[in-house]
Structure formats: structure tokens, C-alpha cells
Amino acid sequence: MIYRNTLLALAALAVPAAFTGLVFGAAWGWGVLAVGLAALLFWHTRHLSRLHRWLANPVAGKVPEGRGIWDEVLAALHRLERDTAKREEGLADALARMRRAVQALPDGVVILDSANRIEWYNRTAEAQLGFEGRADIGQNIANLLREPEFIEYLQSSAHETPVRIDRGQALALSLQLIPFGQSQKMLLSRDVTHAERVDVMRRDFVANVSHELRTPLTVLVGFLETVRELKLDPQRVRDYLGMMQEQAARMQRIIDDLLTLSALDSAPPATDDLRIAVRPLLQRLGADAAALSAGRHVIRLEGETTSEILGVEGELTSALGNLVSNAIRYTPPGGVVTLSWREGPDGARFTVEDTGIGIEAEHIPRLTERFYRVDRSRSRETGGTGLGLAIAKHALARHDAVLEIQSEPGKGSRFSARFPARRLAVQPLVS
Ligand code: ADP
Hints:
Layout: H1 2-24, H2 26-56, H3 68-104, E1 108-112, E2 118-121, H4 123-129, H5 141-144, H6 148-155, E3 163-167, E4 171-180, E5 184-191, H7 193-229, H8 234-266, E6 275-277, H9 278-293, E7 298-302, E8 307-310, H10 313-329, E9 336-344, E10 347-354, H11 376-381, H12 388-397, E11 402-408, E12 412-420, E13 424-426
Parallel strand pairs: 7-9
Antiparallel strand pairs: 1-2, 1-5, 3-4, 4-5, 6-8, 8-13, 9-10, 10-12, 11-12
Helix pairs in contact: 1-2, 7-8, 8-12, 9-10, 10-12
Bound molecules: adenosine-5'-diphosphate (ADP).
Adenosine-5'-diphosphate is lined by residues 322, 326-327, 330, 354, 356-357, 359, 367, 372-375, 379, 384-390, 413.
């Protein structure tokens, strides 16, 4: 193409030159040819110079334009430049996406060079490891993470298992070095505070359950041995059997409560399409309180309503029933237990108020922990498992309700379940 065009251009010069030579003589003909060739050379040189200038400073999208054969050459260059720019843009995009993905990781990522200097890190690493913005880029990681466990890990060659360090009181991190590329390393940091806490809770829970069951079991085994080894009169045997039955019943209550808790843990979210009429629920709770009290307390019911709660009846009965039974169990005979229901635009509140022994303020935040009791022996004497309030809080939370506790030692306690308006369906009062 280029050869052909060049030949055409030369031919276009040669024809008038030959014509001039024929008409005005050979000298004129050569003269015209020389002038034409000089003009062609100048034209090429000009294009070459513009191309050279652009190549020295290749501004994207500013490839010079040309005519004739230069048009084709420069158009090809323009296409090449556009393709390169597009590819670069694609690469920059992919890199930015990668960075955004690594930024979004819940784990910290730090890229280190062969001399352990920081090249890059994500925001999680910045927060977990306490780096300070861009200022720490280029610093040796050993100057910033000075925990001896980490320094030793960094210097050793065994990096397969992560090392655990404490950052302050409330943050436990697991750090792992992963070599990559030529001699670079990636440091991964993971917040294991929550996982460790859950682990401790799980271990404590298993220990608590074992302890709670072992006590009645030990008593039971003791009685069994006594009854078997000793010759006892029938009345004594009956007494022992009665006590054994009490211990067995206690174990059964603990297991029932544990099963209730585990069912709450694994159940799907409490539905809001089943309606539980509040009035009969209150009356049932009042009747249960009366049965448990056996006439030792004054029991009052307050609040007239036609509302319905949206949720699961069994769970609510168990949650509110636990509050009621506690009020009876922790109120000495002669005390007053009041169950009340109040409604307002923000929702409703079920309250159990007693005039019982009350609770010291320091215990209140811990009452809903599994097996937490203020007075172990009193709880046990009254048939408590230490799980009632844990069940109540859990079941209420599944109904978007919160448990509120107010108490004064020696004066009494008030336990309230506060339901949001969206969990209520109000029926008009039928007169
Ligand atoms: P328990 O089976 O021991 O009653 P709960 O989880 O129901 O377990 O309650 C935890 C602890 O909270 C009880 O052991 C008791 O010390 C205290 N408590 C609960 N309700 C009352 C109340 N109405 N008055 C005084 N103390 C209470």
C-alpha cells in the first residue's frame, strides 16, 4: 500500500516533469522534478517531525493527524494507542476492584517486602494493628508490632500456624504470615476476641451443667447406697425415697429448662402471624401464681385489655410464667405479688411486682446469665434451676420484647417485659 502510494506520488511528479521537459527542454523538466521531489521530502519531514514530537511526549488521544500515506500510518498508531489505553484502563479497574475487595475483608491484610517493610495494608489491618494512615508505609513491621510472641514468630521460619497476641485488654488477634511472589509476605490478622469468648462461655456452660447435675446425682447415689446397705424401717425408707424423688425431680427440671433453652436457640424467628389473647394469658398466669403461692401471698391482677400479642404462645407463657414464679418464690409469705398489663402508643408492658427479698444492684445485670443466682441455697430450696430468667430474656427477645429489672433489697422487685407496638393487635373492647 505504502509502496503503491509512493509510486503513485512519484508518477504524479514525473508526468508534469516529463511534459515540461518535452515542451520547454530537458533542463526545465529536471527542474520541475527536483522542485516536486523537494516538496515531497519537505512534506514527509514535516509529518516525521510531528510524529517524533508526539512520541517524545505521547499524550493520550493526541496522536497527530496526517494525509495520504501518513494518514494510514498515523491512523494505525492512533488505534494502537487507543487499544493500549483501553487495556490499561481495564487493568487499573481490575486492580482497583481487587483493592476494594481486600479493603472489604473482615480480616486485616498487610503486604510486606523481602525486608519486612510495609508496602500496603487494608483498613481492617490499620484498625486492628493500630497503624497510622499512610505514615507507616515503608516502616519495618517489627517496629510497629513489638509483641515478643510476634517478633519470635517473624524471625522463625515456621509460619504455618498463626500466632496469637493481645492488643490491649479487649482485643485478641491471630496473626499469620504467608509468603508469596519472589520474597514478599502477606500478614493476615484476625480478631479472635469473640471466638475466644464464645469458647470460654461454652466451656463454662458445660462445666456449670455438669456441676448442677452432679450435686443432685451425688445425693441420689448416697441415698441409694444407704437404702441398699442399711436395714431401715419402712418409714425411713419412705422418707429416703421421697428425698430421692426430690433430687430426681430437680435434675429433671434442669434438663427440661436446658431443652427449652436449646429449642429457643435453634427455633426459627418467632412468627408474628399467631395471635395470643392477652386477657386469658394474664388470667392463666394469675391462676398459676395462686397455685404456686398456695394462699401464702396476696395476688393482684391489674389492667383491662382486649389486645393480642403476635407470637408463639408456648414461648411467651414460659417467659412470663418464669417472672411470676420467681416473684412468688422470692417473696416471703404475707407479701403481695401484682401482675399488670399497661398499653400505650409505643407498645405494651407486662409487669410482675413483688414485695419480696429484692436484689442488690450489683447482681441485676447478671441475673439473665445461665445458672446465675444471687443466693444458691434459696434458689435450690424453692426448686429453681438458675435458668428461668435466661429463658425469659431469650424468649422475649424473640418477640422483640425487652426485659427490664428494678429492685431494692428488702423491699421488692419489679420485672417488666416491654413489647413494641408492632407486636400487638388491638381488638375493640366489647362492652
Ligand atoms: P432461679 O431458678 O434460681 O430462680 P432465675 O434465672 O429465674 O433462676 O433467677 C436468677 C436469680 O435471680 C435467682 O436465683 C434469684 O437470685 C434472682 N431473682 C429472680 N427473680 C427474683 C425476684 N422476684 N426477687 C428476688 N430475686 C429474684
